[in-house]
Amino acid sequence: MIRSGNVRHQSLMNQIYGKQRYIYDASRKFYLLGRDRLINEMRPPNGGAVLEIGCGTGRNLVAAAQIRKRASYFGIDISDEMLKSANRLIERYQLCKKVKTVQADATNFDPENLFGIEKFDRIFMSYTLSMIPDWKVAIDEALEHLADNGSLHIVDFGMQTELPAWFRKILTQWLKLFHVTPRSDLMQYLETKANLENRGLIHKKPFRDYACYYVMGPKRIK
After folding, report:
1. CA 191, CA 131: separation in Å to the nearest integer?
2. Which of 108, 59, 118, 119 is nearest to 88 (CA)?
3. What is the model's pLDDT at position 81?
4. How far apart are CA 214 and CA 154, in angstroms?
5. What is the DSSP string of 125-168?
6. From start to end of the chain, where are the E strands?
7. pTM above the 0.85 mark?
8. Under 8 Å between Cβ of 153 and 215
9. 24, 96 in Cβ contact below 8 A?
10. Which residues does the chain have with pLDDT short of 70?
């Protein structure tokens, strides 16, 4: 169910990606850096369940399903336009029995109703939080559906602190055209949530802080 406050966001995403979805994967591979690292390092258990929040064209889900074939994969996205591309890609790779996607709001979804699954062993968000207005709520919602021994994996735009000022300025202006906003307080919020959830947190700044990379691990035994 789409929250009333996010109906406008859903419309905006459909408007932006109604046509862009056809060239999305071909163009984004040049600047959505770190996605494959995230996929390779998730390592879900055999028989485990993996959820991507903001699955877009399905590119990441298909890639993950080809690497760890004994897990099941699920994806949600607010844009039904993007899901058209996702479902087409999943069919092309004959992964319909292994990968399922549905339209849902990242800030308010019920995986048991959508997929028949209450908790996930892995949840990942790839360049998603920088596009979700209520991104903190999206993190809260993800953790609500993460198994105690599971892990949350995030890659997104960093703050480019180690890159030239002219580059940061150009990138920021360009991202605004697509309603993308790097989250300057993402680290602080994840640290707060990790402490509350009693989970460990790994933070890295690949590509000179062009991207930010986080892994919130299993709950610790008290």
Report:
1. 21
2. 59
3. 87
4. 5
5. EES-TTT-TTHHHHHHHHHHTEEEEEEEEEEEE---TTS-HHHH
6. 49-53, 72-77, 99-103, 120-126, 146-157, 199-204, 211-219
7. yes
8. yes
9. no
10. 1-31, 222
